[in-house]
Specification:
40% helix; 883 residues; globular; 9-stranded mixed beta sheet; 26 helices
């Protein structure tokens, strides 16, 4: 029996022998694609090739791609564990052609692999094609020999693929395997048309042969591309003759470990079986996300990871696991997939610590959720036995408090909640997530003008590593995505040079500035960028023309001069970024990974994975490490080599970055070695002084450091020194006694603050005493309403209640055309009168909103003039309740 390891290797080897380049899996976090939260298909890393934004370094490729479907448009999270096929994390085997071959070859490859390499019985295979794709039908029927009664012609819903509302699209052919006996008299064609579940889809071949326009029309593309995908888990279930992905060798060892630890026999209880499957799936998703630099947080990918961990923790409770169990299962995953995906093992101890912390955090959150649920029960009228389902969903959405736990807790109190409104609230959230999904094709597709320009001028050379000043030719002048030959003073245009010394924005480094000029014109370069591929454009302002509106004959010769000062300062900060990363890895640990960067002439910003704040002492150590490297004045050298050679040499690469056949390695002796296309100093000593100016958290598990170098660093240190000296002079002390003097001053301020607070309390008490004399009797209680000159309304209410045995207080505070109002009800009256309900009912009189609990409610509004009307209505409402 073939193992999943065998199938994966056979697939990649098969296509490698068919002249496909084996490309490693990209990260689960898509590179340069804001439209996707996670990599959800094998083709994601090739999207720019399919969109014709970049020229691929190979004509055909094959991958075993890590995929996650647990957020955004594709979200299988809630189904995991309950079906045989749904998973959050899985592997997608795929082969891709970038105009290298067409339908016939793609179909022949797939058939050969399935029937010869894997040995599947042809008689058990069925095919579905798009009903209008006659070419594919004929290939399957006449060339491959699949009988007509095994080929189904289906509509666009099933067998036509689109990247988005616009962009590449085309028919697809799906290969299915018979997993259940056909009903009497039915053919495989009948079964596929009826979608009765007898055949399992195992491989999808997409033929991108058309382009969909904004008006919905479809036009043929000049060349066809192929994108195929076959889930490893599905094909493994077929090869191992099991009916569920969870019964394959990809999951069985994990499920066995999960069940064994709680002395449960898998397969004996449906509820516990679901829990085992959920935990096994979520274990894979969790540690693969961590390996790709995602840490638990409250937004984006980190939020999804947090939900996955917490969902696993919840199901662990159902199996009898105690808090902290999930992280301890990691070794079983490493045994299963650590060899195939070595990134899993690089920081496994750190990742286990992170997961354990998240488990305990969730445990605390459950306690908070329980407290909120108890308050919901208290606020619920005793006669109502069904709580609002939307509120229970908010409890789940905010605290991760599961509906199942809420059900159990309410059941013990003879209560339930409205499941219809719960499901409605959940569906609304899903709809919002889908609506927030940006149309990937519309967002990422480069304007056709630039494609045309790139096709005409496909040999632009960047010479900015060697020189900052050169004679070159202007090939094109562009304004508003149209080629022009006439210029006007102060025009903002784009300039295409034949050879350019201007560095285009890339890898976090901003584009160069400078001057392009000849005798008839002078252009100030404001920025440099690459709209696609190797097309380097300068954004420029026309600052001089010898003659307005004169036709410029292209190509024309110009001098191109990069702003040397800005380039050198940028290069200094870019090399500093490399040194900073090396220092962080050396001093904090190898778990540090780059999560983003920005390099400008004035500063550098570096985002990195690290789970705790960097302490001031660590900042000092980092600065000293970098400064020591700078003082060594080691040469900074660059070497071109293959990606494999670079990785073997120990160079640092971004895991989710795309690299070509040859990569540029920037290294400085034993200090740094990174794959980088940016510009750098020639010697480390050229950087001069450095200073880290800030360190902060930008997301859970992600930190940001900003630093400066050279003259900027010197000026910063001078400013800080001057500020320190000014402080010393103002406090009339010395540097050595400054901290002691500050402590004394702070103590004096705190003492005076206490005195002020005491005086304020005395004033409040006097005010309360005087106001109580004006209290109105309503039936058997006292009612007080007053405006105060202090925003701490709760304190006022407490003072009033201390002096009233049986009363209701209404206080307001007006400030800048706004009003805040609070109502306090004595505990002895809350069964009859709710402060929160009074606020809700009459807040609109103040043009505001609010609420609260039975004993205290508060609201804010923008209509202070409504105060008297508000008081009158509240007073009348109380009187009617007590009547």
């Amino acid at each position: 029996m073939l193992t999943s390891f065998d199938i994966r290797n056979k697939f990649l080897s098969f296509f490698a022998n068919k002249q496909h380049t084996v490309v490693r899996s990209s990260s689960l976090i898509p590179h340069n694609d804001p439209t996707l939260l996670f990599t959800n298909a094998g083709m994601n890393q090739f999207k720019d090739y399919f969109l014709d934004n970049e020229k691929p370094p190979y004509n055909s490729a094959t991958t075993a791609q890590k995929v996650l479907r647990a957020g955004g448009k594709h979200n299988d999270l809630e189904n995991v564990g309950y079906t045989a096929r749904h998973q959050t994390f899985f592997e997608m085997l795929g082969n891709f052609s970038f105009c290298a071959y067409g339908k016939k070859e793609a179909i022949e490859f797939a058939w050969e692999f399935l029937t010869k390499e894997l040995g599947l019985e042809k008689e058990k295979l069925g095919v579905s094609v798009y009903e209008k794709d006659i070419e594919s039908y004929k290939i399957w029927n006449e060339t491959i020999g699949v009988p007509a009664d095994a080929i189904a012609k289906l509509g666009a819903k099933d067998n036509f693929w689109t990247m988005g509302s616009i962009g590449p699209c085309g028919p697809c052919a799906e290969i299915h395997y018979l997993v259940a006996p056909l009903e009497n008299g039915k053919t495989k064609k009948d079964s596929l048309e009826a979608d009765d579940g007898c055949l399992l889809e195992i491989w999808n071949l997409v033929f991108m042969e058309s382009s969909q326009k904004e008006d919905g029309t479809i036009e043929p593309l000049p060349r066809l591309c192929v994108d195929t995908g076959m889930g490893l888990e599905r094909i493994t279930s077929v090869m191992q003759n099991v009916t569920s992905n969870y019964d394959t060798d990809l999951f069985k060892p994990l499920i066995h470990k999960i069940a064994q630890a709680v002395k449960y026999t898998y397969g004996t209880d449906k509820t516990k079986d679901v829990a085992c499957r959920v935990i096994a799936d979520h274990l894979r998703a969790t540690f693969f996300l961590l390996a790709d630099g995602v840490f638990p947080s409250n937004e984006g990918a980190g939020y999804v990871l947090r939900r996955i961990i917490r969902r696993a923790a919840r199901y662990g409770r159902e199996l009898g696991y105690k808090c902290g169990f999930f992280s301890e299962l990691a070794p079983a995953l490493l045994d299963s997939l650590g060899e195939v995906y070595p990134e899993l093992t690089q920081e496994d101890k750190l990742h286990q610590t992170i997961v354990k912390q998240e488990e305990f955090r969730f445990n605390n959150t459950l306690q908070q959720g329980l407290h909120v649920l108890e308050n919901l029960i208290k606020e619920n009228p005793p006669s109502n036995k069904v709580l609002d389902g939307e509120k229970i969903f908010r409890l789940y959405d905010t605290y991760g408090f599961p509906a199942e736990l809420a059900t159990e807790y309410l059941h013990d109190r003879n209560l339930t909640f409205d499941h219809v409104s719960y499901q409605k609230a959940m569906q609304e959230q899903k709809d919002r997530a889908k609506a927030a999904h940006v149309d990937s094709a519309a967002t990422l597709k480069v304007d056709p003008f630039y494609h045309s320009l790139s096709g005409t001028y496909n040999n632009i050379r960047f010479i900015g590593y060697e020189t900052l000043n050169t004679k070159t030719n202007v090939l094109a002048l562009i304004k508003d995505k149209q080629s022009i030959t006439k210029l006007k003073q102060n025009d903002i245009i784009e300039v295409l040079l034949e050879e350019t010394p201007f560095y285009a924005e890339s890898g976090g480094q901003i584009g160069d500035q400078g001057i392009i000029e000849n005798q008839t014109m002078k252009l100030q370069v404001l920025d440099t960028y690459k709209p696609l591929g190797s097309l380097i454009l300068c954004k420029a302002k026309v600052v001089f023309l010898s003659q307005e509106n004169e036709t410029i004959n292209l190509p024309c010769t110009v001098t191109a001069q990069v702003n040397q000062n800005l380039r050198l300062k940028t290069a200094s900060n870019h090399t500093l970024a490399h040194l900073l990363q090396a220092a962080l890895k050396h001093l904090l640990g190898e778990h540090v990974k780059q999560a983003g960067s920005l390099v400008t002439p004035n500063k550098m910003r570096f985002d990195f994975t690290h789970y705790t704040a960097v302490t001031p002492q660590e900042i000092n150590q980092i600065e000293e490490w970098i400064q020591t490297a700078i003082l060594s004045n080691t040469p900074v050298e660059t070497t071109l080599m293959t990606l494999e050679e670079a990785m073997e040499s120990g160079a640092t690469a971004l895991f989710d970055e795309k690299y070509g056949d040859k990569v540029r390695v920037v290294h400085s002796n034993n200090y740094t070695k990174e794959l980088c296309g940016g510009t750098h100093v020639k010697q480390l000593g050229d950087i001069g002084t450095i200073k880290i100016v800030s360190e902060e958290s930008i997301a859970a598990g992600t930190r940001r450091i900003e630093a400066i170098s050279g003259i900027e660093a010197l000026r910063f240190i001078q400013d800080q020194t001057n500020l320190l000296q000014t402080t010393i002079n103002k406090l009339k002390t010395t540097p050595s006694a400054l901290l002691e003097r500050l402590d004394q001053t702070q103590a004096q301020i705190q003492e005076k603050d206490k005195q002020i607070q005491q005086l304020q309390k005395q004033v409040r008490r006097s005010f309360v005493t005087d106001t109580l004399a004006l209290a109105k009797p309503i039936q058997s209680i006292s009612f007080v309403s007053t405006l105060v000159q202090d925003s701490d309304l709760r304190s006022f209410c407490s003072l009033f209640q201390e002096k009233m045995e049986n009363g209701i207080i209404l206080v307001g505070y007006q400030h800048n055309n706004q009003i805040t109002v609070a109502i306090s009800v004595n505990p002895s009256l809350t069964k009859q009168i709710s402060a929160g309900n009074l606020i809700k009912e009459f807040a609109s009189l103040l043009d505001g909103k609010g609420g609260g609990k039975p004993d205290f409610g508060q609201c804010g509004g923008s209509n202070p003039d409504g105060w008297h009307n508000f008081v009158t209505n509240v007073e009348q409402k109380i009187a009617s309740i007590l009547a």
